[in-house]
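Exam prep: given the inputs below (a chain plus S-adenosylmethionine), describe the expected output before reading on.
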Amino acid sequence: MSKQDDRTLAYQYDEMIPPGKDFRSREVVEAYDAYHRRFRDIEQENATLISALGLQPTQTIADFGCGTGAFALQAARCCARVHAVDVSRAMLDYLEWKAGAEGVTRVTCHHGGFLTYVHEDSPLDVIVSSMALHHLPDFWKQKALLRLNAMLRPGGKLFLADVVFSENNCEENIAGWIREMKARAGADVEADLKSHLCTEFSTFAWIMEGLLARAGFRIDKAEHTKGVLAKYYCTKMA
Ligand SMILES: C[S@@+](CC[C@H](N)C(=O)[O-])C[C@H]1O[C@@H](n2cnc3c(N)ncnc32)[C@H](O)[C@@H]1O
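Solution:
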């Protein structure tokens, strides 16, 4: 059985119905971009990432947990093809509608996820995933990262951003983050954040970094923000 194709386990995790906010709801999907703009500068985030990854017109990339496709659509302007993967059909429908409205043709949507998407194109140059891997428990994060590694060409790049907790002052960091998000974005964002902490699977930096290493990635750069968010720029090891 290949690293990528181990979907036949008797105890396979059902990733198609993730915990937390219901991203299968059309209402949630249509509100997603405006909601996230209350606490993220999405275009700037994506421009910084595209430049940091040095995306090239010949490259094929994938975005796992692509959501409404803000990154996929921006990246498609700089590379040959973006495979946009998400377990939410509503997210992909919305992405396809935006791609049509913006005249973007180099994005292919796939209804699947970290544990179920099978990559049938040539090996990927780059994989990106932002704010999505926390939907899987740690055991399944490891399987997901092994699968992503198998989809990349040798030397291919993985960028992973998510809620990841630094060990020091963990509870103070989380309390500070909740206060800041409430002040900046409102009480509904605060409530969603609390629900995320109780029902989803955000993990510690030492675990995430171990999972990345054991899946065959070298972490070239790690950026930790306020002890609650992390960005990892990684390379697939030989
Ligand atoms: C918080 S949104 C992030 C969207 C986008 N990447 C961003 O940064 O704004 C999480 C997305 O991950 C998707 N998702 C959840 N579990 C997944 C899985 N196992 N595989 C792929 N996508 C998943 C959800 O449907 C949702 O669209």
